[in-house]
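in:
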């Protein structure tokens, strides 16, 4: 039904199952979606974390009938939620993965004590509806929005990751045009000359105080991070004050690799 829902509407289909036989009975449908590149979110229940390895009824952990291991063969993203604080991030990651080319099903295994938790924050960090749009080689709407933000920003900053290698020249031209400081992630360090007049160093692991000071400037109203997955090393330990805040626009790795030059020339 979730498969058919996507085919009829173009929207993400979602299906749930119980632990144990419910999860294994859902295999055929999920595998079919994988073969047909149909975005689909499958959520399977799991016995309580405290009962892992104790022979709980229908246990589906790594010490039982390992549903995460089984689903790894026919999903685009497949993970076990071991803590309530992982839930929102992993839901967002799974939805993004479902729609990434070539598209397909994704799977979350969630223990019952996580499902029953009352400690889930009511503050939503992600704009989930925006993740439901099928990707295109050049998203004209997203590019237009980025252009608008760049034109109206009073003090933008560019954070360049290693996946910008194919488009770094155009990106540097844009930074020069705007007079915007340039920062790199640890893996993107070699893409920009340390003698570039706008270069302010590396942010993140083994980074530079100059980069942190640039991002901490209260006058900075736009941060464009391109070609980085915004992992722990490149974000100063997921620093919300420095990077992961309302000033950030993230241009993801895939977009840079495929169409970075076109996007930045538009900008």
């Amino acid at each position: 039904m979730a498969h058919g829902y996507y085919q009829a509407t173009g929207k993400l289909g979602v299906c749930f199952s119980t632990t144990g036989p419910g999860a294994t009975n859902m295999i055929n449908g999920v595998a079919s979606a994988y073969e047909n590149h149909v975005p689909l979110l499958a959520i399977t229940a799991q016995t309580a974390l405290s009962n892992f390895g104790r022979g709980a009824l229908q246990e589906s952990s790594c010490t039982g009938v390992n549903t995460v291991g089984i689903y790894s063969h026919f999903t685009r993203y497949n993970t076990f939620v071991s803590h309530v604080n992982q839930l929102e991030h992993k839901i967002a990651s799974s939805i993004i993965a479902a729609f990434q080319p070539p598209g397909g099903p994704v799977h979350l295994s969630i223990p019952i004590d996580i499902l029953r938790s009352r400690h889930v924050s009511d503050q939503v960090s992600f704009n989930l509806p925006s993740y439901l749009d099928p990707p295109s080689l050049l998203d004209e709407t997203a590019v237009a929005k980025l252009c608008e933000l760049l034109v109206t920003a009073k003090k933008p900053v560019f954070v360049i990751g290693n996946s910008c290698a194919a488009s770094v020249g155009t990106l540097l031209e844009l930074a020069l045009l705007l007079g915007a400081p340039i920062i790199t992630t640890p893996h993107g360090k070699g893409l920009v000359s340390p003698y570039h007049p706008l270069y302010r160093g590396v942010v993140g692991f083994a980074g530079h105080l100059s980069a942190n000071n640039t991002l901490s400037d209260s006058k900075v109203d736009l941060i464009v991070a391109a070609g980085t997955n915004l992992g722990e090393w490149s974000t100063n330990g997921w620093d919300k004050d420095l990077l992961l805040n309302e000033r950030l626009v993230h241009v993801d790795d895939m977009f840079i690799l495929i169409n970075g030059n076109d996007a930045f020339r538009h900008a």
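note: Residues 80 and 108 are 6 Å apart (CA to CA).
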